[in-house]
Structure formats: structure tokens, C-alpha cells
Amino acid sequence: MLRVESVSVRRGRTMTLEDVSLSLEPGRTLAVVGESGAGKSTLIAAVLGFLRPWRGEISWAGAPVRDCAPSLVMQEPRAAFNPTLTLRRSVMEPVAARRPPPLDRMERLCRGLELTHDLLDRRPLEVSIGQAQRLGLLRALIAAPPLVLFDEPLSALDAFTQKRTARLIADLQAEEGFAALIVTHDLGYACAYADDIAVLRSGRIEELTRPKDFIASPRTAYGRKLRDAAVALGAFERAA
Amino acid sequence: MTLSVSGLGAVRSGRTILHPTSLEIASGDRIGLVGASGSGKSTLGHALIDDLRAQGRGVAHVPQSPDEALDPLRSLEFHWNEAELALKAPPDADRRKRLLSALKIAGGDLGKRPWGWSRGMQQRFVIAMALIGSPELIVLDEPTSALDPVIAADTMDLLESHLNGTGTATLLITHDLGLAARRVSRLMVMDEGRVVEAASTQDLLECPRTGAAKSLCAHRSWLAVPC
Question: Pick from B4, B36, B140, B197: CA 20 to 30 A from residue B113's CA?
Fold first, then answer.
């Protein structure tokens, strides 16, 4: 499991994460929500080992997280691919050293993600943004990582494609059993799919709770603001 | 006075991306133009702006991202002055103060470049500029999708309370029916370059007729909760 224990990250004189503790079991989903600059992307960078914590420990099953070869699904789907390479080459990069290549697995994932083979022979700018996002998921999952980090995975998609992609991610997770750490500003998505929600603000975790409890009664003033904003922006429908 | 356009269309690379479309927008209307990515919403918005301006009508445009409206090398003060010049509005310090206060950015330093302000403040500045000429219509093209939810909700509330009773109509272009449903009284649904359905918000939510509207309604929110 992923353990983030009392982690602080400093950038210059600014503390971008402060005393953050989280845990995430295989097959479970943790959503981290918060405003821009709250430290969400810093948390992802620290978990991936791109930033060294100033204090605290981050581990997966007691070992450094990079040992489990986690995957990252990036925010801007088309920009996440090398524009000069075919998508097939980019998607197979994480398993390029494997002989034979895991073609059966790719076939199965393509079916699950509703991707056709002709898309793989195109370049990133020749597919729609929704297709690029699903290709990003294919690349993230092709090596069967136990931990997948999602940085605003739906923010470039339209409302319909967001919901369809979220469903595909959840179906694949149920099948594959990976742990998902999702950073998002979309409280609706977080509440619909996460097992737990962490509200990050100014580098600190203000609340860590179940989605149902968060919607019913956020414990902090900022949590209430987030919930009310999501209602005002139509993320939730009034229950009959 | 009603704004009216007829036969708006657009072709790109030989492909029709907007089929002939006619619209009427009454003073003070709150209209939502919704549809999936690539359905032609922004194309219709641009065609509508061009046509109405050609008729001499006052139309303002707020794009999705403040980056599209602001030059990173120019101060915000420069942008404001340019907007006044373009709209032939004589410089008016009181109006500037009133509009910036309405959007709660009166405390910002206009001597800074856009990137010296947060994105939320930049987008509010763009909206304030759009209000300089007291336009008959403001076209808001995904105005909040680049903002944090709390700031997005605040910005929409501030704009609405400023516009109440002014007669300025708004056209909210968005892929998000959940957002539009909370903000407008009339909805138009676009699909493959056509307005395929138009109805009051309540009627469309309760009884969508076309496949595009049904799909938007079915996916309009993440969860049903007591709210």
C-alpha cells in the first residue's frame, strides 16, 4: 500500500506541503481536491519521487514508490504524447523492453477503453481529445502498475466524455485492482468515484473523509465553500 | 430591443461546420448553448458576434481563458484603455471603479501585467472589460472552465448580480448542461453544427426530445444528492 507519512516539501523558503499523511490500499481510490496552488501537483511529484520530501516518508509496500513503477495520467492528454511518434510507439514505451511484447494485454485494454487499432497508427494531433485521454490511460496501464496517479484526468474533456471516461477508469480498476490517487478540482467526480476524499489547502490536509460524509457536512469552512461551489456549478443533481 | 440573426453558417475546408441557423435574443435573456466538444457551439458564438456587430449592435465576448483576451506583455491598465478606445467610450474613472468593484477586483494593481494577477482575477478583469460599453449581449464561451470551482461560482454570481435589471442578455456557451441548467432560463442544444433543440430549461431537462439532448441530460451531473 501507499503510505505518505508526515511529509513536508519545501520549495525555496515556501512550504508547499506540510505534515501530509495519507494511505491508499490496492483497489481503492483516494481523491485529493483543493484550489490551484494548494499543493495537489506537488503531492503527485513527491509520490513519484520527482521531489524529495524535506521531512517525512513516502513508500509503497515498505519500499520506495519508484520500485513499484507507478504510472501517471497527465492533465492535457494530447500534450502528454510525443507529437512526432505514432501513438502505438508511445503507448508501448513502458513495455518496450519486454519480449515478447504484451500484445494480448494491449488487446484487452483496448477493448475495455473502447479504442480501435487504427487510432494507434495515428499521431497525437490526429485523434480527438477524448481518444487521446483514453490512449493516455492505455499507456498508463499497459505495464500493469499497482499504483496509478491521475493529475486532473478529466479536465480537458466535455461533460459527457468526462462521465464516460470516469466509468471506464472505474471498470478497469475493478478488473485490474490498481490503487488510484486522483488529483482533481472536480468535487462531483471525486464524490462519485473515490472511496476517500482529502481536502488540501495551503499544503495541509484540512479534511480526510468519505464522500458521503463530505457532501452531507464538510467539517471546515473551505470544505463548505467547495461543496457549495460544486452545487452552484451543477456538479450534483437535486435528489428527488 | 430584440437581437436577431438569420441564416448564419460556416464552412471549413469544404466541410459545413455550422448549418444555416437563425436566432432571436430578447433583452435580458439568459440563454445556454450546450453540446458536446466539436458540436459547433463556439462557431455559432463567433458567427453570432460577427453578424450582430455588423448590424451595429453592442456585443461583448468573454473567451474560455483570459490568455485569449490579454496580452502578457501589456499592463492591465493598457488593456482597459484600449477597450475604452475600441468601444469609443470616453475614459471614465468612476465607471472603471464601479465595474472592478462589481467583480471584486478593485484592489488589484492595474499597473501589473496579466500574469501578476491570479487566473480568477484575470478572468474577472476580462468580464469587467466586457461590461464597459453596457453591451446588449455578452457571449460567455466556457467562462469558468479554466477556474477553480469556488472562484468560478463566485465569478458567475457576481456577473449575474451586476447584470440583473440592466437589460443585457447573456449567451452561456458550455459543454456542461449541469452548469447551464443552474444559470439560464432557456437552452439550445447543438449537435453536428445544428441547433437541434431549443426549449425552456425546465422543459428540456424534464422532456428532452433529441438524442443529443437526452445524452446531455443523462450525463448532466455526477451524483444526485440533497442540495
Answer: B140
